[in-house]
Design goal:
Blueprint (H helix, E strand, L loop, with lengths): L12 H9 L5 H19 L2 E4 L1 H16 L11 E5 L26 H8 L3 E6 L35 H8 L5 E6 L5 H7 L2 E4 L19 E6 L2 H11 L18 H4 L7 E4 L10 H16 L3 E4 L8 H22 L10 H6 L6 H21 L5 E5 L22 H5 L3 E9 L5 E8 L4 H14 L12
Parallel strand pairs: 2-3, 2-4, 7-8, 7-9
Antiparallel strand pairs: 1-3, 4-6, 5-6, 5-10, 9-11, 10-11
């Protein structure tokens, strides 16, 4: 048993890897510890749709034997992981968060799942999602809303749509999980659950076998406790896939060689002053402190004039998601006999009124915005914003007609990448988050900046009450 912690399930993934390599930790002990934590707490936290306990134990035993015999596949071998319930695994039920699909069995396995399993990761189960991944608050009327573990007394927004993945990692059930991000669905739960989450660029990670919401925006991403772990998992996820045309020509880029180069010499843009309106004071204080910390590390913090406001992308991205989402699942939301979430039905249904002309106009507007922002950000390495305008709010206070994706949707629309990571806490102990936005396919720089920041701070090391 590792001396660093009495519960191996709470170790960072990269430390798990080191302990397994050194023979001080076995995958069987690790999986057993994870399953024990899930059994003890998931009845309340509700992170998992399904837990593959028998299969995970068998995989762990096989990993033990392989590693002891000198057949370790690589640094991820024997480490458990959770997958969002949009990711197909042959023979398994994949519901996409919908009761209408409660009996929907996958006919094949997603490319991403194949890659993770081939790297030796042990899939311990599937996590809850907002129905059809259509929502940022993390709620699900029929399948249940995961409980944000940072408040044991009040049910607060876990963030969506990758709600279960965020809660599973925050609660120490798994060291990392896979989410998907169409308008913020990796970064919003990362923000409210105190995690590090990477929104990848379109084409960087295959979406073949992942239930789509808006194919021109959907991106899978890692959710972990630290930049170290997020980078390690991201490396295993990326790469071209002949089954996903968007990945063709996108060569893998290993972020590890540059991740420890520090922030010195980088030019980082603060958000325009006008964008601070409507943001909670504690969020702004943590944001300002994060900029100061990066400046102390040698980064140059600069001002930029952005061609559009972030709020402009709430509607633009929403139109694209609405049109594409309605094309894919409109037949389900239009069937009033089906148990579709009352909050999700109108969101998807909004696509019914979007004409082909309106949709193509939105795509054209997006292309114009991409050129405008590329010009505005030419001389900077990253744009820094808060990830969310507030900390997690009580679920009972959610206005389902709104979205918390104010700071995140523009990243998807402009085909950029972004890293969300903890940068402080409210006076009542709820996590706050910084978003590091970089050019498309420049995940390595986002991870480098995030790594430098986490070396100088300890926000990412803190855990929810009663965990750890």
């Amino acid at each position: 048993m590792p001396s660093r912690n009495t519960d191996p399930a709470l170790l960072p993934a990269h430390i798990m890897s080191e302990e397994i390599a050194a023979g001080r930790l076995s995958p069987a002990d690790l999986v057993e510890a994870a399953l024990k934590r899930i059994e003890a707490a998931d009845n309340k936290l509700h992170a998992f749709v399904q837990v593959y306990d028998k299969e995970a134990r068998l995989a762990a035993e096989a990993a033990d034997k392989a590693i002891r015999s000198g057949h370790r596949i690589g640094p991820l071998h024997g480490i458990p992981i959770a997958l969002k319930d949009l990711i197909e695994i042959e023979g398994r039920v994949t519901t996409g968060g919908s009761q209408a699909w409660r009996d929907r069995r996958s006919a094949y396995t997603a490319t991403l799942a194949h890659r993770l399993i081939a790297a030796g990761l042990i899939v311990i189960g599937k996590t809850h999602t907002v129905e059809f991944a259509m929502g940022g608050w993390g709620t699900n009327q029929h399948c249940g809303t995961p409980w944000n573990p940072w408040d044991p007394d009040v049910a607060r927004t876990p963030g969506g749509s990758s709600s279960g993945s965020g809660v599973a990692v925050a609660a120490g059930f798994v060291p990392w999980a896979i989410g998907t991000d169409t308008g913020g669905s990796v970064r919003l739960p990362a923000s409210w659950c105190g995690l590090t989450g990477l929104k990848t660029t379109i084409g960087r990670v295959s979406t073949h076998g992942i239930l789509p919401l808006a194919p021109t925006l959907d991106t899978p991403g890692p959710m972990a406790r630290s930049v170290d772990d997020a980078a390690l998992l991201y490396n295993a996820m990326q790469g071209p896939d002949p089954l996903d045309p968007r990945t063709r020509g996108v060569a893998p880029e290993d972020p590890m060689p540059a991740i420890k180069c520090g922030a010195r010499g980088l030019r980082l843009a603060r958000m325009p002053e006008g964008e601070r309106a409507g943001v909670a004071a504690e969020v702004l204080a943590a944001y300002d402190a994060a900029l100061e910390a990066l400046a102390q590390l040698g980064a140059e913090i600069v001002n930029v004039d952005l061609p559009r406001r972030f709020a402009d992308f709430t509607d633009l991205t929403g139109r694209i998601i609405g049109a594409e989402g309605y094309f894919l699942v409109g037949h389900l939301v239009d069937d009033m006999s089906l148990p579709i979430d009352d909050a999700v039905r109108p969101r998807i249904g909004a696509g019914r009124s979007i004409s082909a002309r309106d949709y193509l106009r939105a795509l054209g507007e997006r292309d114009a915005a991409k050129q405008e922002f590329a010009a505005a950000l030419t001389n900077v390495d990253a744009l820094l914003t808060p990830t969310t305008q507030t900390a997690a709010i009580p679920v009972e206070q959610v206005d389902q007609a709104t979205t918390p994706a104010h700071f995140t949707r523009f990243v998807n629309a402009l085909e950029l990448c972004a890293l969300a990571l903890p940068n402080g806490f409210t006076a009542t102990g709820l996590p706050l988050s910084l978003q590091i936005v970089c050019r498309g396919y420049d995940e390595a720089t986002a991870l480098r900046i995030g790594w430098a920041y986490q070396q100088a701070t300890d926000w990412h090391e803190r855990r929810p009450p009663g965990i750890g």
